[in-house]
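Task: fold both queries, return tokens.
Query 1:
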Amino acid sequence: MSKHTPGQWYEHNAGFIQSDVSDDKGIHRTEAVAEVRSTYKQIEASDGSWINDKSVMQADADLIAAAPELLIACSAAMRWVSASIGEEAERRRLFDMLDAAISKAEGRPHEGKV
């Protein structure tokens, strides 16, 4: 597994992803994981003013914050798929998709084979 900021990630304020971590001495701290700076839509309000729609930035931040849990879930699914009996072509396709996602998350090349 690659080395990334441990623990659960969460969004703090708009677009800032953080994690609470403890070191080997038991010292707790909050670490910044990412800052999402996404484009946003401007919507014209009925009074002629403009409203910044940050829903895309929020969705990106939510996805990034879910990354550690998604990696764990994909790893578990890949273990299950590799042990499952079923239609071979479909099993290989699903295994390859999971392996590609896990490889990307761990920063390693995807080999594309079962």
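Query 1 returned. Query 2:
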Amino acid sequence: MLVLGCHVAEVSGARQVLLSVHDAGCVFSRKITPWEVYEVEFGNYAAQLLQRGVLAEGCASTLQCLHADNGAIQKSSTLRSKMEWLSRAFVQSPPREQ
């Protein structure tokens, strides 16, 4: 299972978005496959990053699902389309109760 992470932080006064894909297939190894830093959150970036990670790791035939939180990028139609193109399930966390 791959986990798509999106972390937003302010670095030297500028907003930075870190996108990463973690291989959660092994309990002891949280290997970060690809990662990129951007200035904006954009679904196309996540879709491209996911595709690069899947191709680089050679796991296109064994990838069963992608887990993502309920962030804007993870909900984007571009990322969902990429997952459909990869013919895989898309799993989102249920909303947290306040």
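Both queries returned. Flag for query 2: The domain at 2-92 is CATH 3.30.420.10 (Nucleotidyltransferase; domain 5).
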